[in-house]
Write a structure and sequence with these properties.
Blueprint (H helix, E strand, L loop, with lengths): L4 H9 L6 H18 L10 H13 L11 E5 L7 H7 L4 E6 L2 H13 L5 E5 L2 H4 L9 E7 L4 H8 L3 E11 L3 H14 L2 E10 L6 E9 L13 H4 L3
Parallel strand pairs: 1-2, 1-4, 2-3, 4-5
Antiparallel strand pairs: 5-7, 6-7
Helix pairs in contact: 1-3, 3-4, 7-8
The chain binds S-adenosyl-L-homocysteine.
The site of S-adenosyl-L-homocysteine has 17 residues, from β2 and α6.
Length: about 240
């Protein structure tokens, strides 16, 4: 087993505690990711230390700001499972639903969850535009998280319908966050949200700059949103 010092140092400096089981689960996740990446395109990052930091520690970094205990959380556009699966590993008492429009990636993610012995986590094959109108998804989640899926205006339309009043959308963004927020102001307001805060930091052990944008859901989202599949990306609100 390769040593995981780069990861544990990063977690230490973020003051995020970990157990042996959690490290073993991440290690196994790495193995499965690299194996599957040979036959399908899941990640451009394959170096061990880089995966540890840029996928795993990055996903988990949200826990510096919110413990996420006993919550219902949806990961929109999870791809190979980021940030949803590492967050689940570190928040075993929260329920996670991982959504993506590409079934093949979800098959991989479901295999990972099974192999790692994770409970209260499921995958859902759908486009956000359709899913957010279903009654068992609409206004049902404490948190929606999303990394590397779309610009913030588009994302706000895709995610805010899922969130309960008082819940949050957390967008994993990089440096140009302020500009994105400016361009997304209208969409956030129309969807019933409000930017509550942003948290910017350098991911320890890397050159990765991360900004987490916290958008709080204040009022229920009007029924017409999100608009039909493709529209939120083509013509953001
Ligand atoms: N969050 C992952 C994957 C990013 S790639 C990571 O950070 O590594 C973006 C993913 O979002 C793709 O897998 C794509 O299929 C999915 N996606 C994009 N638009 C979507 C939509 N409208 N509904 C559901 N999934 C979507």
């Amino acid at each position: 087993m390769e040593d995981m010092n780069v990861l544990t140092e990063c977690l230490d400096s973020m003051k995020i505690p970990y157990t042996d089981l959690q490290l073993e689960q991440l290690y196994r996740y790495y193995e499965l990711l690299i194996e599957k990446n040979k036959v399908m395109n899941l990640t451009a990052i394959t170096d061990f230390d880089e995966v540890m930091i840029k996928h795993f520690a990055d996903s988990i970094s949200l826990l510096r700001y919110t413990p996420l205990r006993d919550k219902r959380i949806l990961d929109l556009g999870t791809g190979a499972g980021f940030p949803g699966v590492p967050l689940k590993i570190f928040c075993p008492d929260s329920e996670f639903i991982l959504v993506d429009s590409i079934n093949k990636k979800l098959d991989f993610v479901a295999d990972v969850c099974e192999e790692l012995g994770l409970n209260d986590i499921s995958v859902c094959h759908s486009r956000a535009e359709d899913l957010a109108h279903k009654s068992d998804f609409r206004e049902q989640f404490d948190f929606v998280v999303s990394r590397a899926v779309a610009n913030l205006a588009t994302l706000s339309e895709l995610t805010l319908g899922f969130i309960k009043k008082g819940g949050y959308f957390v967008s994993y963004k990089s440096v140009a966050a302020e500009e994105e927020i400016e361009q997304a102001k209208n969409a956030i307001r129309l969807m019933g949200g409000k930017v509550q805060k942003t948290e910017s930091f350098n991911l320890p052990g890397s050159d990765l700059e991360r900004t987490l944008i916290f958008i709080k859901k204040g009022v229920n989202t009007p029924k017409q949103y999100p608009r039909k599949a493709g529209t939120p990306a083509k013509t953001p609100l």
